[in-house]
Write a structure and sequence with these properties.
The chain is mainly alpha-helical and 307 residues long. The chain has eleven helices and two strands. A two-stranded antiparallel sheet has the order 1-2. The radius of gyration is 27 Å and the shape is elongated. It starts with a strand and ends with a strand.
C-alpha cells in the first residue's frame, strides 16, 4: 500500500507510484493507435469512411459512468470494511492484553501472561498469511513455541487455532482458580469479537463481486474506448488521438482501481498494508507488557510502500 504525505497539486499530476497508469500504458497505446487509424480513414487515406458521430457515445458514456461509479463504490466499501475489521482487531488485542494483565489473581505467573500475549500478537500474522494464501511458518516460529507452531501448521484455519489456544489458556487458569467467572465472561466476549473479525475477513476474501457484472463493465469500457475515436474524428480532427486516449484513461483507470480495491487483502499498491498493520498490532500488545518496540516498516522514498 502507498501512503504519502499530501502532495502539491503539480506533483500530484506527475505521481507514478501508487497510480494505475503503469499497468494501463499498453492498453492506452492501443487506443492511441486505433485513433490514428480513425484519423487516417477520415482523411481518406484508406478507401473506407467510418463516422459514428458523438450522440451514441454521449448516451453510452453517461450510462457507463454510472455503472463504473457503482462498481467503484462497491469495491471501496469492501476495502473500507476490511480496514475497519483490522482496526477492530487492534482494539480487541489491546483489550485482551489489558484483561490478561489486570483480571487474573496474583498467583498467575508473569510468564503465563506473556505466553498469552505472544499468541495474541501472533494471530494477526497468521490471519494475514491466510488471507494472502502464503506460508506463515517463519512468522509463527519466530514468536511461538515449537509444539504450538506444529499444531497451528497442521490446521487448515490457523488464526482460529490460535484463537482456540487463547480460549484454552483462559479455561486452564479458570480451573486452577487464577481467573474468576466474571473474568472468564469478559475474555469470552472478546474471543467472540475476535471470531467475528476473522469471519468477516474470510467473508470478504472468499466472496468477490459477481463475475458477470465485472465482465459486462469490462467489455463495455473497452468497446466504448475502441469505438470513441470514430465518433470524435469529425468534430476534433487531428486532436482525436489525444482526447480519445485521455477519455480511455479515465474509464480504464476507474475500472482498474475498482479491480484492485475489490480484493483489499492482496499485495497491490492500493491494497491494505497488512504487513505493517500486523506488526503494529503485535507492537501494541508488547507495549502494554513493557517490552521494547518492534521495528515497524517506515517511509521509502516519498511515501510508504508496505505489504
Amino acid at each position: 500500500m502507498i501512503i504519502r504525505p499530501h502532495l502539491h497539486w503539480f506533483r500530484m499530476l506527475l505521481a507514478w507510484r501508487g497510480s494505475v497508469l503503469p499497468s494501463l500504458l499498453p492498453r492506452l497505446l492501443l487506443i492511441f493507435c486505433i485513433s490514428l487509424v480513425a484519423l487516417a480513414v477520415h482523411n481518406h487515406i484508406l478507401k473506407i469512411t467510418v463516422s459514428l458521430g458523438t450522440t451514441p457515445f454521449s448516451l453510452i458514456g453517461i450510462a457507463l459512468a454510472v455503472f463504473l461509479g457503482f462498481r467503484n463504490n462497491a469495491s471501496y466499501d469492501r476495502w473500507w470494511e476490511a480496514r475497519k475489521l483490522w482496526g477492530h482487531l487492534l482494539n480487541i488485542a489491546r483489550s485482551m492484553t489489558r484483561q490478561a494483565l489486570t483480571l487474573p489473581r496474583e498467583s498467575l505467573e508473569a510468564a503465563e501472561i506473556r505466553a498469552f500475549v505472544q499468541i495474541l500478537g501472533t494471530l494477526p500474522h497468521a490471519l494475514r498469511h491466510q488471507l494472502r494464501k502464503t506460508d506463515p511458518r517463519e512468522d509463527l516460529a519466530a514468536r511461538l513455541p515449537a509444539p504450538l507452531v506444529e499444531r497451528v501448521m497442521a490446521s487448515r484455519y490457523r488464526p482460529s487455532t490460535l484463537m482456540l489456544s487463547l480460549g484454552e489458556w483462559v479455561q486452564r487458569h479458570a480451573r486452577a482458580g487464577a481467573i474468576d467467572s466474571m473474568a472468564v465472561l469478559a475474555f469470552d466476549r472478546n474471543l467472540d469479537a475476535l471470531a467475528d473479525v476473522i469471519g468477516g475477513c474470510e467473508r470478504i476474501g472468499s466472496t468477490p463481486l459477481p463475475f458477470a457484472y465485472s465482465v459486462m463493465i469490462h467489455r463495455t469500457v473497452y468497446f466504448f474506448c475502441a469505438a470513441l475515436p470514430f465518433g470524435l474524428v469529425d468534430s476534433i480532427g487531428i486532436f482525436t488521438p489525444v482526447f480519445s486516449t485521455f477519455v480511455a484513461y479515465a474509464f480504464m483507470a476507474h475500472e482498474a482501481i475498482a479491480s484492485q480495491l475489490e480484493d483489499p487483502f492482496g499485495s497491490d499498491e492500493n491494497d491494505l498494508a497488512l504487513g505493517m498493520m500486523s506488526v503494529s498490532i503485535e507492537d501494541a500488545t508488547r507495549d502494554l507488557l513493557g517490552e521494547p518496540a518492534l521495528i515497524i516498516p517506515g517511509p521509502q522514498d516519498e511515501g510508504y510502500l508496505v505489504t
